[in-house]
Amino acid sequence: MKAILFEKYGSPDVLQLKEVEKPMPKDDEVLIKVKATAVNPLDWHRLRADPFIVRFSDGLRKPKNIFIGADIAGEVEAVGKNVTQFQPGDAVYGEIGTGGLAEYVCAAEKAIVAKPAHISFVEAAAVPVAALTALQSLRDHGQLQAGQSVLINGASGGVGTYAVQIAKAFGATVTAVCSTRNIELVRSIGADYVIDYTKEDLTKSSQKYDLILDNVGNLSVANYKHLLNDNGTAVVAGFTNLGRMLSVVVLGGLSSKFGNKKIGPMLASPTQDDLLDLNELLEAGKVKSVIDKCYPFAESAEAIRYLETGRVRGKVVVLIPA
Asked: Are β-strands 2-5 and 16-19 bridged in parallel, bridged antiparallel, or unpaired?
């Protein structure tokens, strides 16, 4: 079978399409014929070993795991002897960690769920990392309640487009932060108010919010404190640089411990239960995938290169040939 892999760190130019051995499912795994794979910032962070601390887990001089791609959607081809939830022919999607940019993958039974019949493989592949991050940021870290006011920074990106819709499904009033060209997009998916960051300085706003979800990471801890109501929460899911991340961890941690405003980072933890919760929202029509571009398998490097521009509206998906 063919797979996209990288045997050294660097730009998307180091990605190679190669023949590799087709995997065999273990007792608790399913073998999936991949139809579509979404790319995420974590893919290019791993590819470039940026920030450098990535190397401490992925390999100091060269990557230990040469495969890439976390989000997949496809059809079950075979199942391990202990698998009870799926059978060959089932349409599924999920988050497998790595290796999704390939014709076939093996996934743990608990890492995938059935694809809703009314959505395409492309739409399903876009869901896992981004929508799980949005759901867990708002519901678990932010403790979002109906009637609260939510500010979503980076509302037109992968996590942001899901976050706007999920917050609305939970009954929140949503203010979306985006550029001029994305105003109509975020309004179309449910944003009540929009702040155009090219024309308005968010940090000088007098408006206060119960919950902030920052998918960009370009705000300071002081900015979060200024924008939050008393007992409000800021959840930071994205970072512009390592310094911002450390500031949120250290200064945000101090604010959370000694003040009445909670500020901290989050890292999504994929679970089958949460994917099933997302399925309910997808099936009810309360959440949909926003797809910017689809690339052919052989142009996976271009897909990641486009993602790195930071100009993506929603998600970027790679199509795996039949």
From this structure: antiparallel
Residue corresponding to tokens 């008393």: 230
pLDDT in tens, 293-313: 999 999 999 999 999 999 999
Report which DSSP code applies to 208. -
**Could you read off the pLDDT of 95-149 as tens digits, one per residue?**
999 999 999 999 999 999 999 999 999 999 999 999 999 999 999 999 999 999 9
68-110, pLDDT tens digit by residue?
999 999 999 999 999 999 999 999 999 999 999 999 999 999 9
Residue 218's alpha-carbon distances to 88, 183, 240, 272, 303, in angstroms, are 45, 19, 6, 31, 24
Look at residue 318 and give its three-state secondary structure. Answer: strand
Q: What are phi and psi of 92, to 5 degrees?
A: -135, 165
Candidates 282, 293, 117, 289; CA nearest to 189 is 289
CA distances in angstroms from 43 to 49, 257, 282, listed in the order given:
10, 33, 25
Question: Where is 299: in which H helix or E strand?
Answer: none
pTM of the model: 0.95
CA distances from 20 to 152, 198, 200, 277, 302 (A): 41, 47, 51, 35, 22
Angle at 193 between CA 190 and CA 194, to 5 degrees: 100
- Strands ordered across the beta sheet of 262-265: 193-196, 173-178, 149-153, 209-214, 228-236, 262-265
